[in-house]
Amino acid sequence: QVQLVESGGGLVQPGGSLRLSCECSGFTFSRYAMSWFRQAPGKERELVASIRIISRNTNYADSAKGRFTISRDNTKNTVYLQMNNLKPEDTAVYYCRAQGPYEYWGQGTQVTVSS
Predict the structure, then answer these.
(1) What is the pLDDT of residues 51-101, one digit of tens each?
(2) Which string of DSSP letters, residue by residue, matches 19-72?
(3) DSSP letter (8 states) at residue 75
(4) Model confidence over 66-75: pLDDT tens digits?
(5) Which of 61, 113, 59 is nearest to 86 (CA)?
(6) CB neighbours (10 Å) of residue 96?
(7) How many CB atoms lie within 10 A of CB 64?
(8) What pLDDT is attached to residue 53?
(9) In 3D, which of 104, 105, 49 has the Cα closest to residue 72?
(10) Quick one: 43 exposed, middle or buried, by C-beta within 10 A (0-12, 13-18, 19+)?
(11) Contact between residue 68 and residue 48 where contact means Cβ atoms under 8 Å apart
């Protein structure tokens, strides 16, 4: 059974930090590129960051560059998103996605940035 379980979301003040985790099981994690997406109320889901399989090349949305860092630990089947200097506009449900022979999504974790 494929599972992608996000955690680490919550309420944080502007300027604060959060670290999201996405623990995966049921597929060969090391063969999949991993991404973080987010969806704010009334908006379309958008790509935040992605990391490839072997090269570990990363890509970021302009809104995430310089503040967010994506990483993966293939020994733990987990992908992370370190988010620093959070802004109210970062408020959204954050999802992880595995892309490879198949595509899998997690259920999402809520991030709220508010004072």
Answers:
(1) 998 667 999 999 999 999 999 999 999 999 999 999 999 999 999 999 999
(2) EEEEEEESS-GGGSEEEEEEE-TTS--EEEEEE-SSS--EEE-TTTTTTEEEEE
(3) T
(4) 999 999 999 9
(5) 113
(6) 28
(7) 20
(8) 85
(9) 49
(10) exposed
(11) yes
